[in-house]
């Protein structure tokens, strides 16, 4: 029985080319890049080459790139790092964010800061005007996810950035010297969307290697030149003092190669998956007529389909599908084990019952039309049983 993997939003297999690029740094070029002998200096140079490669993709300078152990750390560094610099201030975010954004803000709210969550429209899109309405004189940070990890909706970042720039100009005229930074969690976006920081208008951006066919526990936080952060990890001062600890050179090399490849393939792969997405949706609606799509189809990642099957139990469906070789998800992999109703689905107006009747299918480089045909057929059989 062939396994059909449809959970690429949770994890991607490492690309063979990426794995090959990393291999020397596990056994041959294993040196600590902070050491002073020549072999270590060569490894340090390789690390800086990887940093420059990432910076080029983002339209940034190498000094703007901090390597982290994944998206969660990068989000924590961005949010806590800004707020620690500005005591008793305020942040704005959305009700769709990953827990690695929501949890740090909730933590900070218990220690003297505050934040506001902006609800999306029922189609899973945030209205930029709602973001600006939530900004106060005390707001120093706005965090808006680029593309959602559950329902795949793409947020209008450029419009949000434009609105925040108007507020910044007004503040300067009024003598308010507080910064107003825009951060985006772009972990799900990197395979398919433009990541040029200036074009997006963002001050900080989080990326995750485990979502782009790179190594798990690798990631990046981009910070613009004017952004000041308090580090969360103190020690030897690596990563320009923002992330102490001996660098994961193999992870950084792998991340850089994976990011470059993802952005090289993004146009052709997006086109291929967009076609496959529509075919998959048509098959699902044909064979499971009660299925309902969650989130905007137009403003959506090309690899994502999130559906509700009224009256079904998604846990039962997941086990039954897995038994037939179909691997998918009920929501975020990070919260799946908690048996909690998705905050994202609640935010777009689904009842708890509807949320517990929902499934996420996320496709990737290995997905074929045969895969989605089989998945639709098996789902129809399981739902009818």
Class by alpha and beta content? alpha/beta
Strand content of the residues, in percent? Answer: 5-15%
Query: Oligomer, anyone?
Result: single chain
Report how far apart the termini are.
Answer: 20 Å
Strand order of the largest sheet: 2-8-7-6-5-3-4
Biggest sheet record? 7 strands, mixed
Shape: globular
Average pLDDT figure: 96
Count the strands? 12
N to C succession of SSEs:
EHHHEHEHEHEHEHEEHEEHEHHHEH
Task: Name the poorly predicted regions.
Answer: none
How many distinct helices?
Answer: 14
Helix fraction by DSSP (H/I, runs of at least 4): 40-55%
Radius of gyration: 21 Å
Explain this structure:
The protein is an alpha/beta fold. It has 14 helices and twelve strands. Strands 2-8-7-6-5-3-4 form a seven-stranded mixed beta sheet, sandwiched between helices. Strands 9-10-12 form a three-stranded antiparallel beta sheet, with helices on one face. Strands 1-11 form a two-stranded parallel sheet. Strand 3, helix 5 and strand 4 form a beta-alpha-beta unit. Helix 3 runs parallel beside helix 9 and helix 9 packs across helix 14. The longest helix is centred in the last third of the chain and has 39 residues. 47% of the residues are buried.
């Amino acid at each position: 029985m062939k396994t059909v993997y449809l959970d690429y939003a949770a994890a991607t297999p490492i690309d063979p080319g990426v794995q090959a690029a990393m291999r020397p740094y596990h056994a041959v070029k294993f040196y600590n890049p902070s050491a002073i002998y020549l072999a270590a200096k060569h490894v340090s140079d390789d690390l800086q080459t990887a940093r420059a490669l990432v910076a080029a993709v983002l339209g940034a300078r190498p000094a703007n790139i901090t390597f982290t152990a994944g998206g969660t750390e990068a989000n924590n560094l961005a949010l806590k790092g800004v707020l620690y610099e500005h005591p008793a201030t305020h942040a704005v975010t959305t009700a769709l964010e990953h827990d690695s954004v929501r949890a740090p803000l909730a933590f900070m709210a218990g220690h003297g800061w505050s934040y506001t969550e902006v609800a999306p429209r029922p189609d899973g899109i945030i209205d930029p005007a709602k973001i600006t309405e939530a900004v106060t004189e005390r707001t120093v940070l706005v965090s808006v996810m680029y593309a959602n990890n559950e329902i795949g909706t793409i947020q209008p970042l450029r419009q949000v950035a434009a609105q925040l720039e108007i507020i910044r100009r007004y503040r300067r005229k009024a003598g308010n010297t507080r910064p107003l930074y825009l951060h985006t969690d772009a972990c799900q976006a990197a395979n398919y969307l433009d990541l040029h920081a200036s074009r997006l208008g963002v001050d900080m951006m989080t990326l995750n290697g485990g979502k782009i066919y790179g190594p798990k526990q690798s990631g990046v936080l981009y910070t613009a030149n004017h952004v000041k952060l308090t580090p969360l990890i103190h020690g030897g001062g690596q990563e320009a003092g923002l992330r102490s600890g001996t660098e994961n050179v193999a992870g950084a090399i792998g991340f850089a190669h994976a990011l470059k490849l993802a952005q090289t393939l993004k146009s052709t792969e997006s086109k291929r998956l967009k076609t496959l997405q529509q075919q998959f949706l048509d098959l699902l609606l044909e064979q499971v007529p009660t299925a309902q799509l969650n989130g905007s189809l137009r403003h959506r990642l090309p690899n994502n389909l999130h559906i509700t099957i009224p009256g079904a139990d998604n846990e039962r469906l997941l086990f039954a599908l897995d038994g037939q070789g179909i691997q998918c998800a009920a929501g975020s992999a990070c919260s799946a084990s908690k048996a909690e109703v998705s905050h994202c689905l609640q935010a777009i107006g689904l009842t708890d019952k509807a949320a517990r009747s929902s499934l996420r299918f996320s496709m990737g480089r290995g997905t074929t039309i045969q895969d989605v045909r089989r998945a639709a057929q098996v789902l129809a059989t399981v739902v009818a049983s």
